[in-house]
Amino acid sequence: MDYFELKSTCRLMHRLVAGARVRTCGQDANRTLMLSVKGGCDPHQETTLILDMVGPHSGLYASNERIQGESDTLLARSFRNKLSGAGIKEVIMPYPDRIVCITFQLAEWRNPRQLWLEFMGNFGNAVLVDPEMETILECLTKQPDDDGGYLLRFPGRRFQNAWIRAGRGRQPLSNLADAPSLWPVEESPRDIVSSLQRTWAPMTPELGRSLVRLYQVEGWSRVEKEIRRVTMPEPEAELSCDGVRQRLFSSASIRMTQIRSDRFRNRKQTLVQRVAAAEARYRRSMAAATRDLNNLPANEVIRAMADSLAAAFHRLKPGMAEITVPNVHDPEYRTITIPLNPALYPRDNVDRLFRKAGKTDRAVPRIRQRLNTLQDELAALKSVRDAIESCEDDTALSVIASQLTRAGFAESNTRQINPSAMLTCKPFLRFRSPDGWDVWVGRSAVENDILTFREAAPWDFWLHAHGFRGAHVIARNPGKAADIPDRTARFAAEHAVYFSGARGEKAVPVFLAQRKHVRKAPGNIPGLAIVTRHRTVIVDSPPPPVES
């Protein structure tokens, strides 16, 4: 909200909540404080005041619903303890800047308390103050001082509002209309806008650019009229209580949608970055393992040197630096030169070569096994990243974040979710095959996980489009038949293709396996599975199916 929008909102907010009493307080993860109040222009209406102190859309909002994700933090409990039961006396903007003062009154208090909302700059703050003692009772965050540092605000310190601290050199904008000589003269319009913002209040970048354009095109007289129009606007028509609620609630609904969208987008971006960082670590580990494998001496050469030296042991003498002997692994018995350690006895040189050969024998399969494991986990992480990028709801994203945390790919401060939340997803898509079999289709990574590993029985049949991200399909087999009918197999395979990235493709391979041959991939990530025994069905992408 800019200054003028915030001023209009405060006027409507005063009409809506003046006389209302505070019931509770909550806090959102994005430095958003929420006060739940009841009363005001409608004695039975419960309203949530949203004090959004962060981001480009920071401001004061009123809503008839609560923000999803609100939490009862220690700071929220502190605000609630100091404001619970208090009545709202007034909501005003005492200075020509984005500063709001909400006054609370309670019979048990000696003096009213004020909640200062400072939206100046990028570091908004909410400070609860005892105005008579000029003492801070509670505050939401810290405020930067004039020198760019941070002035810590906490209970017990003396309060000095942001206008007094940062706006001492600014003058009311209405004074500029009476003093044309004070109009700044700079080299560029951008410098003029900056000078106006430093000197006059209220002043927004948009208003500054508008005044500069008017000055360049129509002259000072037009600028003077615009300043008077802005600083002394025509009184707005009085709205009814329903009109006030409708205007404030519609604005809050848009902002709450933005809050949810921003939170979801930020969580998704954070998870993608963490998975990408894990992928980079696995690639570095694979590079190191490949380098170790390449640096190992040839296993056949070491073994040939050890056997040849043992066969010519009678020729060894102490102090020899090398020896040339026939290669017993060569059919033509060509000679081979073997370096020796002169400080070792002949038997120790032979044992050293055999130990080196044995170490190489053991190291090669271990490194190759590690490379295979790293490659599988890297492919699993890529699938996880694709699943995160395709998430469209917060429930699925929260489950993936929880599983990533348990697998060690994400930090422990990732928001956890109860596993029972996985069951709150919408029901699976359900179809009936030509043979009368029930065919269930998952619509997300979470649903795929629940469908395959919770709902499906071991004798059910599982299908998935190979090489594409998409749905898990289960053909229910309550009769425990040994095989699936051909028409049902084709029917389920076509649904697996349609509800996947292969939609519209020709000759798509679909894996068909019994559920008992499907297990979860390493990391316990929703939707990822490994098939140990299957057959492949080739089908084309079908027309849109009809749910039964």
Helix content: 40-55%
Contiguous helical run count: 13
Rg estimate, integer Å = 36 Å
Neighbour order of strands in the largest sheet: 16-17-19-18-20-23
Show unreliable segments: 144-151, 411-426
**Main structural class:** alpha+beta
Overall 3D shape: elongated
Strand content: 15-25%
Distance between the termini: 49 Å
- In total, how many beta strands? 23
Largest sheet: 6 strands, antiparallel
Estimate the mean pLDDT confidence: 80
Task: Please describe what this structure looks like.
- The protein is α+β, with helices and mostly antiparallel strands.
- The chain is 40% helix and 21% strand.
- The protein has helices at 3-17, 74-83, 162-166, 174-177, 189-199, 205-217, 220-231, 241-295, 299-311, 346-389, 394-407, 445-455, 486-498; strands at 21-28, 32-39, 42-52, 59-63, 87-92, 99-105, 113-118, 125-130, 135-139, 143-144, 150-151, 171-172, 200-201, 322-326, 335-339, 429-432, 438-441, 461-465, 473-475, 508-514, 518-520, 529-531, 535-539.
- The strands form 7 sheets. The chain has a 6-stranded antiparallel β-sheet, with helices on both faces. Strands 5-6-7-8-9 form a 5-stranded antiparallel β-sheet. Strands 1-2-3-4 form a 4-stranded antiparallel β-sheet.
- A hairpin with a 5-residue loop joins strand 10 and strand 11.
- The protein is elongated and about 110 Å long.
- Mean pLDDT is 80; it is low at 144-151 and 411-426.
